[in-house]
Amino acid sequence: MDPIELGSFWMPKQSSTIAEEIDTAYYIVYWLDVVMFVLLMGALAYFMYKYKRRGPKDKLSDVTHSTTLEISWTIIPSILVIALFFVGLKGWMKAMVAPGNALEIRTTAEMYMWTFTYPNGNVSVNELVVPKGQPVKLIMSSKDVLHSFFVPEFRVKQDVVPGTYTTVWFEATENRDTILFCTEYCGVGHSDMMAKVLVLDKPEYDQWQETGLKPGEKPLPPAELGKKLYATRSCNTCHSLDGSRIQGPTFKGVFGRTEQIADGSSIKVDENYIRESLLEPNKKVVQGYPAVMPTYKGLLKETDIDAIIAYLKTVQ
Ligand code: CUA
């Protein structure tokens, strides 16, 4: 197998059109450093040995400086650094300017999930689905604090900022799922703020846009769909299944449980309370928990909400 396919010691696999250019710039610097390091440390060790003062009778060197040497160790690195600037500039310009035919996907980051809105209004959460071989431009913003979008295999990274838009573009070259990380510390859930990047062939991408089904997928029964949504919509970041306390109340035995609400009243967890908690999560927060859940309004279809309710009934 091609060694680049496996990723190298330093770099993950390459799967976008810009990856090769970025890696080339990286390896030019890397190998320059290796050569410099070996030459400098080798010379240092050799001179330490050769010119060690072995006793009081050893004479000191009478060389004070060497103009030729000083000029060459100024000029040669200057040329190298200027050359590196142009290597970097070329790649940077390519990375900054998205091609005009790029597919635009609106991307929203918030503690602790990623939401993607596609041109036809489709929404996916913690799962970025892109067609292979087509430039994709993400128009990103944050709902709360600073986050950062990073797909190592694509070699793209860009801060996601509240109150302003930032963009990033890439063109996926491989039919391979990869991972998107949040790469700026944003709170306790930062390390869980990941999303899957799914690269589909164009016809399969179109089918997914049309039906929400990925290649080989069949519609799921509600409880199973709910289970999947629990993981893919980040419910699991805050709600455990085993009774342990994370950010929010556990889902173990949640359906039918009576909860104390922050205002002192109590409520029985039924279909309507779950639905309301998904759409207006801060209306009736369970006592003792922070009101930090984001709303899922517009992010879940009615059938998704039904599926989550069906699933929660099964979590005992
Ligand atoms: Cu979002 Cu770290």
Give an overview in words.
- The structure is a single chain.
- The radius of gyration is 28 Å and the shape is elongated.
- The two termini are 47 Å apart.
- The protein is built from seven helices and twelve strands.
- The strands form three sheets. It has a five-stranded mixed sheet, with no helix packed on it.
- By secondary structure, it is α+β, with helices and mostly antiparallel strands.
- Helix 1 (19-50) packs antiparallel against helix 2 and helix 4 (222-232) crosses helix 7 (302-314).
- Dinuclear copper ion (CUA) binds at residues 109, 112, 147, 182, 184-186, 190, 193.
Largest sheet: 5 strands, mixed
Q: Report the average pLDDT across residues.
A: 91
Label the structural class: alpha+beta
Q: What separation lies between the terminal Cα atoms?
A: 47 Å
Would you count the extended β strands for me? 12
What are the distinct ligands in this entry? dinuclear copper ion
Approximate shape: elongated
Query: What is the CA-based Rg, rounded?
Result: 28 Å
- Low-confidence residue ranges: none
